[in-house]
Specification:
Layout (H helix, E strand, L loop, with lengths): L5 E2 L2 E3 L2 E3 L4 E6 L4 E7 L3 H20 L2 H17 L1 H11 L4 H22 L5 E3 L10 E9 L2 E5 L7 H12 L3 E5 L6 H12 L7 E3 L4 H10 L5 E5 L2 H11 L3 E5 L5 E4 L5 H13 L11 E5 H16 L19 H16 L3 E4 L3 E2 L2 E2 L2 E4 L6 H4 L6 E7 L2 H9 L3 E2 L1 E5 L3 H10 L4 E4 L15 E2 L2 E2 L4 H7 L1 E9 L9
Parallel strand pairs: 1-5, 8-9, 8-11, 9-10, 11-12, 13-14, 13-21, 14-19, 18-19, 21-22
Antiparallel strand pairs: 2-3, 4-5, 6-7, 7-25, 12-24, 15-18, 16-17, 20-23
């Protein structure tokens, strides 16, 4: 049965509004329109900012227990409407039912963590007497909300990555203007409904749907916007930094994540973890396994088992609970990945399985004999493709892993503690995962990378610290009442 198309509204300062111009939201699996959303304009951005200036004052003055109550209420709303959230994610994105269910559970956890961390945003005292001449001073540090947060989110986690920006911003007393991905705006709108149902005051949250090219510059460059949180591509991230001016930022800009498998590793565990880490969400995952470096002695066995496991994955209809891999976000992206695979094969790589495209679907591809200068090694594939490469030692593997402009996360499989600590010290990444693939994240951990992988860290506590300004308070006290001997 075909889904009925829905006409959506966007949230402007807490009020739902319509617009004459709309954008279509497509189901990438069937390539059919499932909804339309308003096409926001620069005028809408300016209005959202004016409303957010008032909302920021309201948010700042909400007592912590009230912020907690709103966040916990939003989490409870999502919990009570899980089926609706799962269905929305499956319809508009690449995710299967299993993957969508996992994302909804994580979103609930993210919002609850935000509520918990709201009470933990503590200051600290400053011992002014450490410097001669300041014996009569005492002081402390407080965390003040920055004011207005601009949040720009991608398509691959349309609910939880939104929660990772909105939850911390509200927890520490800011207003938020959210620009979700044009491909997957519906999950963000459902999340906004949860916050309104939980009693979030008007002005604190806006969700502007539409084209980032048309409204993005107006949003990030406005001086009243004091923090920009962006997850997306490197080139877009560079453009934002050039246009935003002097303000705080957090940017997660992707990767081509490596995982290293040494000869003393548990191969069964390594294969299972790497296959899962490579092909989840059709490979559209910034920490998904893209490059696997395997020591020579176990290279053939690992590769054989990896291919066998990959061939067992079921590609198909997202709504089928048995499906492991759904479509990519669009046929355009699937064609790009197909072209990258063909280019690598033309240049000498061997395709051991997969790599076939039909519509927006690409069957999971395993490549060997790939040159280190190939695009499929050096760039972020963001598709269901993995390259397996032999190495003679851990040192060689680390050097090859570091031979990249990215550095988000890396995995290492070994039973040698010395090898583990060598990798921890030498890998140029934001996170090293031992005896698991690069594709490991919990919502409470600091998450971010080095080099072109971004700036700053997400993770509730760390995002909240970034979304506040430290303010120093110092008192000069009268010490004349002190008794002296």
């Amino acid at each position: 049965m075909r889904e009925q198309m829905v006409i959506e509204r966007m949230l402007l300062g807490g009020r739902w509004v319509e617009r004459q111009e709309y954008l279509q939201v497509m189901d990438p699996g069937s390539n059919t329109c499932i909804a339309t959303v308003p096409k926001a304009t620069k005028k809408d951005v300016k209005r959202a900012i004016e409303l957010a200036k008032k909302g920021a004052g309201i948010s700042k003055n909400l007592p912590v227990y009230k912020r907690q109550s709103i966040l916990m209420g939003a989490a409870e709303y999502i919990n009570e409407h899980q089926d609706q959230f799962v269905r929305t994610i499956v319809l508009e994105s690449s995710k299967t039912v299993k993957e969508a269910e996992k994302e909804v559970r994580r979103c609930i956890e993210t919002i609850r963590l935000s509520a918990e961390e709201a009470r933990r945003l503590n200051g600290e005292t400053i011992p002014f007497s450490q410097m001669k001449g300041h014996e009569s001073r005492i002081g402390y540090i407080t965390h003040q909300p920055v004011g207005i947060v601009a949040a720009i989110t991608p398509f691959n986690d349309p609910l939880n990555l939104v929660a990772h920006k909105v939850g911390p911003a509200i927890a520490c007393g800011n207003a938020v203007i959210l620009k979700p991905s044009s491909e997957t705006p519906l999950s963000a709108l459902r999340l906004a409904e949860a916050f309104l149902a939980a009693g979030l005051p008007d002005g604190i949250l806006s969700v502007l749907t539409g084209s980032g090219k048309e409204i993005g510059d107006e949003l990030v460059s406005n001086e009243d916007v004091r923090f920009v949180s962006f997850t997306g591509g490197y080139e877009t991230g560079v453009g934002i930094t050039q246009k935003a001016g002097v303000k705080k930022m957090a940017m997660e800009l992707g990767s081509n994540a490596p995982t290293i498998v040494l000869q003393d590793a548990d191969l069964k565990e390594a294969v299972e973890a790497c296959v899962d880490g490579a092909f989840g969400v059709a490979g559209q995952n910034c920490i998904g396994v893209q490059r696997v470096y395997v020591e020579n002695m176990v290279y053939e066995r690992f590769t054989s088992q990896f291919v066998e496991k990959t061939k067992q994955l079921k590609v198909g209809e997202k709504k089928d609970p048995a499906t492991d891999i759904g479509p990519m976000i669009s046929e355009k992206e699937a064609r790009r990945v197909e072209a990258w695979i063909k280019e690598a094969v033309t240049n000498g790589a061997n395709l051991l399985c997969g790599g076939k495209r039909y519509g927006a679907y690409v069957t999971p591809a395993v490549l060997v004999n790939v040159g280190k200068e190939e695009k499929i090694i050096q760039e972020e594939v963001f598709g269901p493709v993995v390259s397996i490469l032999p190495v003679s030692s851990l040192e060689e593997a680390v050097n090859l892993a570091n031979d990249s402009c990215y550095g988000l996360q890396a995995g290492l499989f070994t039973s040698n503690i010395d090898a583990a600590f060598y990798a921890i010290e030498e890998l140029e990444v934001g996170g090293v995962i031992i005896n698991d693939s690069s594709d490991v994240r919990i919502d409470g951990m600091p998450f971010g990378g080095v080099k072109r992988s971004g700036l700053g860290r997400e993770g509730i506590k760390y995002a909240m610290e970034a979304m506040t300004e430290e303010k120093v308070v110092a008192f000069r006290v009268n010490n004349s009442m002190k008794k002296t001997d």
